[in-house]
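COURSE: Structural Biology Practicum
ASSIGNMENT: Worksheet 4, Part C
STUDENT ID: 0417
INSTRUCTIONS: Below are two proteins. For each, the amino acid sequence is given first, followed by its structure token string. Answer the questions at the end about the second protein only.

PROTEIN I
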Amino acid sequence: MTYKGGAVIIESDFKSEIPESVKEAIFEASKKLPFSVFWHISARNTIGKKQHANMPQNMFLGKNLPLQDLLGHPKCRIFVSRCSMESVLIATYHGVPIICLPATHFDESVASFVEKHGTGVILPRKNITGKLLFNAISGVSNDPSFRGISRHLAETLRDQPETPGDRFIFAIQNLERHRDHKHYSQVKKQNFISTHYWDVCIALTLVVILFLFTLSCGLWFIFHTFSDSITVVNVDRKKII
């Protein structure tokens, strides 16, 4: 079966295991979508054998999928993401609307930026359902304003006097042309200690030694104070006897 309507990219790179509610919502929503669904999961996340057996026909599941290439494809319609800074920047660069499933407080701040600028919507990850995710994907994909704003931001990011590749080539050629310039030869003038950061290592080592010395002195003082008090008590007991 082919799906010519486009593709939905799902990224669920959670720092811990993917919640079961999120898995079920993704599977349920994917079955109803007229798009191809590419689900990118990280090495730390797993999908059970039972869920693999019930995987929709339009879903392609894989670890470490090339998000840059998938989001840059002209058929990409929607990006479902937990809203890490890197993934949002990639999607914005390629002009792809985003559906946010934030996992942390930092993700929520990035997701609020996406929603504020009109390039996506936020869904509650704890209360996510297949119906809610399906309605969000359908609504964003059918609303041209999300795509229009996303493409406008992408054009703004790409509006540069030269490409990143051209800047890289210029930097290499500039280094070759001015190889003997003092600006590029400062490292050669540094001594062995500064070049290999031995001064920093020595300073950190002294700090650690000072900390351990202070800690040992404190423990020694507490031990001897406690032992002296016990000795005084024993002496007083002997006098009473």
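PROTEIN II
(use this one for the questions)
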Amino acid sequence: MKTCIAFICVATLVVSIRGLKASAHLECQADPKTRVNEISIKRFNDGEDIDKSAIGVYALCLSTKLNYINEEGKINIPIVKKFFSYLFLNETVVNQAIERCSNAQKDDPQDTAMALAKCFRESYNDFHKGNNLNH
């Protein structure tokens, strides 16, 4: 019974996170200054290296709307940690992902947003492939 309740809570949180991301995506795409080609977004999300000029403004918009990055372009570690804690449900793995993704901080906010998104994707993929996140 406890396992079932925990699963329902986690599933609800995942759906909520996806809803927040979808809402932020729509807001960023509605603004002509941050709108980018959907194909570029898909290619970036699939792991292709996409030039910052094609996706950077969108990545920064999305990251700031989700509070992963503040207005100055700095990674918001407590929010990122909360995201990872919903995703991984294991404090050791969460801390490994935070350590890995803290290296995503760059001098340029768009570069930070793109590096953080890439780190999220790689951490998620590595975890689900059974790989160690400490590389």
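ANSWER KEY EXCERPT:
Q1: The chain has a mean pLDDT of 83.
Q2: DSSP finds six helices and no strands in the chain.
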